[in-house]
Amino acid sequence: MSMRRIRSLIDGINTSDGAGVSLKRIIGTSELNMLDPFLLLDEFGSDDPEEYIAGFPPHPHRGIETVTYMINGNFKHKDSAGNEGYLTDGSVQWMTAGRGVVHSEMPEQNEGLMRGFQLWLNLPKEKKMMDPSYKDIGSDDIPSVGFNGGLVKVISGEYRSVIGPGRPQTEVMYLDIHMDKDSSIDIPIKDGWNAFIYVYEGQIKTDINVSKGKLAVLETDGTFSCNAEINGSKYILGAGQPIREPVVRGGPFVMNTKEEIMQAFDDYHSGKMG
Question: Against a cut of 0.90, is the pTM above it?
Answer without folding.
Answer: yes
